[in-house]
UniProtKB/TrEMBL annotation:
Name under which the protein is recorded: Nucleoid-associated protein SAMN04487908_12359
Function statement: Binds to DNA and alters its conformation. May be involved in regulation of gene expression, nucleoid organization and DNA protection.
Family recorded in the similarity comment: Belongs to the YbaB/EbfC family.
UniProt keyword list: Cytoplasm, DNA-binding
UniProt keyword annotation of Nucleotide-binding present: no
Organism: Aequorivita viscosa
Pfam families in alphabetical order: YbaB_DNA_bd
Location in the cell: Cytoplasm, Nucleoid
Subunit field text: Homodimer.
Tagged with keyword Cytoplasm: yes
Top-level taxon: Bacteria
């Protein structure tokens, strides 16, 4: 019985280390997003850190339009990055979880 608990604890620790390694790796996964007309381009990591912004000069003439572009494009980019982030971490967590009765449907 204690061997099973110790095995599970070891597996959980190993999974936690894999999750941390995955989070670190996601800093190098880049997500690109652009406005529909290509006037604004954003690159961020799968950890949702902005790496680059490209703003067409024409957007600099209208503050309100630029703000709208930023909100829409950033939200789309963050949504994509969040999807990648959550999928990667869920895969690691599911792979590393010990077989605990009653919890098998939790990560499906």
């Amino acid at each position: 019985m204690f061997g099973d608990i110790m095995g599970m604890m070891g597996k959980l620790k190993e999974t936690q280390e894999k999750v941390e390694a995955t989070k670190k790796r996601l800093d190098s996964v880049l997500i690109d997003e652009a406005s529909s007309d290509g006037l604004l381009k954003i690159t961020l990591t799968a950890n949702r850190k902005i790496k680059n912004l490209e703003i067409d000069d024409s957007l600099l003439e209208d503050k309100e339009q630029l703000e709208d572009y930023l909100v829409l494009t950033l939200n789309k980019a963050i949504e994509k990055a969040t999807g990648v982030h959550e999928a990667e971490l869920a895969a690691v967590a599911k792979e590393g979880m010990p077989n605990i009765p009653g919890m098998d449907g939790m990560f499906k």
